[in-house]
Prior knowledge:
Largest sheet: none
Number of strands: 0
Structural class: mainly alpha
Number of helices: 3
Oligomer: single chain
Order of helices and strands: HHH
Amino acid sequence: MTSSANLAKILHGELEASLQRAQDDLAFTTSELEKHRQLNERLESDLLKIEQHGQHQSSPGNGDANSADAAEDDILAGLGLELGPATKNVRCLNCIPFPNVNPCGW
């Protein structure tokens, strides 16, 4: 009876450890799900802002192309992307720095 009691204790310990791992995995997965939900909500909100901004820009009587470029900068600034000089002029790594030679079309 002693060996069966020891076996039961060992199996019980393994089951508890397995349960703890499953609970930890569930907590991590729930946390990740919440992060993705928040990101999704922000993306949907940003897309809605861009779409609404585009509808305002396409209405008749708007200014020239320069004012459209400035408005594009304004809508991007409103999204909180924090685009600075380092990110606004990004070039791909495959681009060759010679005139008229650019495989990416930049």
